[in-house]
Amino acid sequence: MLEYFYFRNHLCISFELMSLNLYELIKKNNYQGFSLSLIRRFANSLVQCLKLLHKENIIHCDLKPENVLLKQRGSSSIKVIDFGSSCYFHQRMYTYIQSRFYRSPEVILGLPYGTAIDMWSLGCILAELYTGYPLFPGENEVEQLACIMEVLGPPPKEVIANASRRRLFFDSKGNPRCVTNSKGRKRKPGSKDLSLAIRCNDTIFVDFIARCLEWDAKKRLTPEDALRHEFLQPTSSSSSTSSSAQQHELRRSPSEVTTAHRRGQQTTVNTDTSDQQYSLYRLYRGKKSGSKLLDGEVGDAITTNGIIAKPKLNGVSSTNGSSRAVSDLVANLSDQNLDDSGTFLPPIL
Fold it and tell me: Which of 45, 115, 136, 277 is 20–30 Å from 81 (CA)?
């Protein structure tokens, strides 16, 4: 908080002025998802934040893309905001917390909760940053748990046995209740693998998310353990994933875009590309992106994924005369350093 004042009997609080939140960033990117390199940077910053909260016994209680902001326009440095629902571990006040898509099983089932619920939200956020849409898009709490079980299978019996709200989701025998959403879809527990759900074949990244999404909060990854995980190490093999063409095949089809709650339409624009210059857009997709800048073109560069990218970044034109500056900028994204300060995003912002 920087300052506060009263206006017409309303308390107004001023905070540091920052840029887009991560949901708006996903939206700006046409819900296409980002490269693992950029996601690792975001993940490292988020885990550092959760490490501090865990140390202070603070539960954020509403971690989601909307509550993670870019510090400034064009930079990948982020800050976590909105501690309005937060509490100390020993002073838990509410049972109805967390936005639905990012709500942990213990909150849904009515179990005691702690700082581990934020790690669950982190796993959901990272999956969404990769795919561009929510991992568990339940229309209500009943379907939310059905979405989770569809990917993770039914929860362990000991988890159900201690749940105060189990009758809402399970019958007297402990079997999940059959749920049909507004589109007539039924979700079968364990019918979808996590790697299939996020359409990613990078085992290290999938393992990191899987360990954030443990049913049992005691077995869930802690912030300290997360920092030691291979995914957040500078030498992680996640930085050298398969080609963008293979990654693109793993992602959702355009028809799936319309099914995602609160998400917009995806459009595709095909255009000729040049091998002379990589587009700044590859900062999202990794170094092997098939998206290129048209050689020597002045004006908007249309990528193969339909993103219109201005050929300028921080006042530097990306025409032939300044391609070296663009190359230098891309080189600064080396995975040898996870510090996100001074790292710039593509000019779609």
Answer: 136
Domain end, chosen from 197, 225, 257, is at 257
Residue 206, helix vs strand vs coil: helix
In the structure encoding, which two tokens stand for residue 160, read together? 């159900």
| 133-171 residue pLDDT tens | 999 999 999 999 999 999 999 999 999 999 999 999 999
Instruction: Look up residue 213 and give its amino acid.
Output: L
Let me know whether 96 and 189 are in one domain: yes
Q: Does residue 226 share a domain with residue 120?
A: yes
Helix (H) or strand (E) holding 109: helix 105-109
**Other Cβ atoms within 10 Å of 276 Cβ, number:** 12
269 burial class (0-12, 13-18, 19+ CB within 10 angstroms)? exposed
Q: Which domain holds residue 184?
A: 21-244+253-257
Active site residues: 62
**Residue written as token pair 């998802």:** 33
Q: Is the separation of the CB atoms in 261 and 31 below 8 Å?
A: no
Residues 154 and 217 placed together within one structural domain of the fold = yes
Cα distance between residue 63 and residue 180, in whole Å: 28
Among candidate residues 203, 230, 257, the one where a domain is terminated? 257
| Burial (0-12, 13-18, 19+ Cβ within 10 Å), 247 | buried
In sequence order, what are the residues at sequence separation of 6 or more whose Cβ sits closer than 8 angstroms to the Cβ of residue 69? 18, 19, 20, 21, 22, 78, 79, 81
Predicted model pTM:
0.72
Cβ neighbours of residue 62 closer than 8 Å, sequence gap 6 or more: 82, 84, 85, 86, 97, 98, 99, 102
DSSP string, 55-108: HTTEE-S--SGGGEEESSTTB--EEE---TT-EEGGG---SS-S-GGG--HHHH
Q: How many structural domains does the chain have? A: 2
Report yes or no on 40 lying in a domain. yes
Secondary structure (3-state) at 313 = strand
